[in-house]
Amino acid sequence: MSDRTVVVVGAGVAGTSAAWAARRNGAKVHLISGGAGASALMSGALDFAGWQVAPRSGHEPALDATACALLDALGIWQVAERPVRVATMTGNLRTARGADRALLDVAALSNVRVAVPRLARPAWDADLVARGCSAEPWAKERGVRFEAVDCSPLFDDADARASDADLAALFDDASRVERIVRALRAACDRHDAVLLGPWLGLRTDGSALLREAIGRPAGETLSMLAGAAGARFETAAERVLRDAEVKRSVARATALRRSDGRFACEHDGDEGPFEADAVVMACGGLIGGGICFTPSEANAAGVMPEASSEPFAMSLKSEACLALDGRFVGRTGSLHGPNLEDYGWPSIAEARSVLERIGVRRDGVRALDREAQAVPGLFVAGSAAADARHTVLDSLAAGIEAGLAAAS
Amino acid sequence: MVVSPPLPPSDTDVIVVGGGVNGTGVARDCSLRGLRVVLLERNDLGHGASGNSSGMIHGGPRYLSSNPSVTRMSCLDSGFIQRIAPHLLFRIPFIMPIDRGVGSGVFFTLVDAFFGAYDKFQVLKRGKPHSRLTPDETRQLEPGLTSDMIGAVSFDEWGIDGSRLCAANAIDASEHGASIHVHTTVDQVVREPKTGRACAVRWTDRCTGASGSTKAKLIVNATGAWGSITASLAGLSPMTAAMRPGKGIHVVFDRRLSNHAVAVQTIDDRQVFTEPWENVSVLGTTDTDYYGDLDDVHATSDEVRYLVQAMAHVMPSIRSARIIGTFAGVRPTLYKYGPIPDALSREHEIVDHAAHGADGLYSMIGGKLASYRLFAEEMSDVVARRLGIDAGCSTHTHPLPGGDRTLDPSAFAAAHDIDPVAARRLIYRHGSRAERVGELMLQHPVRRAMVCLCEAVSDAEIRYVVRSEFARSVDDVARRTRLGAGPCGGMRCALRCGAIVAEELGLDPRHGVDQARAFALRTARSRAVALGPLQARQEALAIAAFRAQAGLPGGRA
Fold it and tell me: B499 and A90 in contact by Cβ < 8 A?
């Protein structure tokens, strides 16, 4: 067992996994986070690689016992042996390695009719979802038909404008689940399964209650941005970290100073710097603000920038450096910053945007400095790492690895 | 069942090639005179310069000293456009600060006198007279102007949505019998072997691959910057319809940054401006000779930096404003060897290709948004004379679709249970035709749902522009409604819009996903060249959101 102190920066999938794993190995863990990142915006699909890339690469890593234990602790995700097949809110079906358990996995279904209840929600068009899903070649082949059905309202008019995540939170209330059950029993009694939007509880497993009550598979579509799946993860992560007795601080980490083999993590909170033997940087990529992009012309007045600057920087200053395609990222040969023409979205599936490839130079989970030497005690996981996959399972696996390494 | 648009008829009076403001304007004018018209557009209505202009029908003060007749013509026609499409116009008051420096006092007096002369034309377009402002007055009106100035002048212009103007002209033409075909390219202008007379065109529908030919008595080449190419399709030298293609780009900010449009001098002594335009601010424009692919014109980061640098000269805070996109178009300016692009004429002229042995073919060269109606009238007069039609022009008195009467946004919002702001945006785009969108909204609550939250575009409006305004893709819908033109760049709405378009046109839903993806990639490229700190985060988010829901091109699981 470790007697080390580990500071984890970031509370997304990678940070939570790292904190949990380090704690499990006996370290004292202090998690500092300043806000939400990509994990809070997740769709509910779990992948190792981008979903359109994964099937081509042939094999995917299996989850080890530690990862399975973390999945159990979180209790919101399922990763089975076979891929799942889930629907989007705009009527497409996609495969994933696993999914939020509230989602309706249609992979095992064949020759069934799936009811899609018509409900008054701004982003929900049951007919559109039913038509789109039914037209997917997979659905036609398997005889899975999606049909929009009329349904009495599942929620009050006052809730109609609530976000999907807020609505899902309302369904943690048992009396509301009863109401849904009654309405869906009436609406879907001629169907074999039910597909709903992402509204089925944050703390409770609403879809399980529903499945049991109506006696058939029932579940959600993928969430759009800032939907239920991300909120569910945040809720579960909070519980897991509390149960594991991880100390938490709400602040933005600003710098890591290393001396005599120990780190001092500076931050913008009221307390002094946090001391640690090891640090896991899981502060996210561009989305969460872990990596910042600032061409030097931005914020300059007059006709010219004040000085040349490095366009990309970590929000958390440390000895680690950023890399793009294996090379150190530094100043460009322009006072205004880089030529931006190449920063658009890639036009083919395998190529990824610069905005996704940029990250902390690394060897596995060990962060490297400008000389490509590992910084002792400094680890990186999740979207902050160079060439990260930006997927939930990749962040989870990397987070665990970084947490275990930091604790030993 | 695929709902294919009808194919062009095999025979007609006039074929108009090009669906920009000149082409749709001619199609409308000729249709109103009772002629049978077929309009063929290679891309989409307003796809070129018309939909990518500064969005103003300005009076052309820049021509005041060199060519006051252009100014007079522009102002007069601007007044006519206000009469026929009042819903599409919005006032854009300008401020032009004058830098303090050697001789600036004299310069200020000259500018003041110049706009005094312009005031005489302002009455033609209901414009307000200019005023001379002190530095304090200027800063009170526009606190962002922090440069050292000796004062400023104000003057008055009108904004317009160029894509809507094209759509409105095309719809009116269609309602008067014209046959409008978007995504239909002309492969060849057929000429009679003996006489050389242009008598037909061969065309291909670029969506379905269907092809055929249409005979016509006359053919009008209104393809703007593509004009020389179109002439070459008739076997003529491109020089018979020569122009100096001038690329102009604009930079779009996420909100209205200023109360007034601000005109400013660039580092190379050109005039550029930033204008509050609909829900955003637009900074433009450049003018450079362009010889690239006209179907794929886009801004470069150099051009963006050049414009931002100019505006930062008087309004430094523009550097920290968030850029959410760029757009680019190519002006079809009259050909002349020698002058710098800015000095080229925005006048227009009609080329009768009888002089080149191709009787029956006319090319419209040059022109500007503000005087499109007049140009179309001149062209249609030639057509009518050739075909022996007595009917005169009525495009200046006959309202454009939706321009016949005004609707009250609050009442509309209450009657259709939508947000008043959404109602206002809808009525801006469609005028009284918003009622037709309203009818769709009343059919089902889902039709009222806002698919694009940034620009308040409803499910009903998407369906309406597909059914009634010739839209055939997410891109086309975006051009007509500004869907996806807001800060989120279509991240939330493109896929749903694709699903709706696919449903309306009876296409495979996966085709809708492909359309949404193509739209997302195109707009992403327009944003990349202007990437700033905030937009970089947004961009990473958009990529992630799109990947999770649809994957990016290349393959499907």
Answer: yes
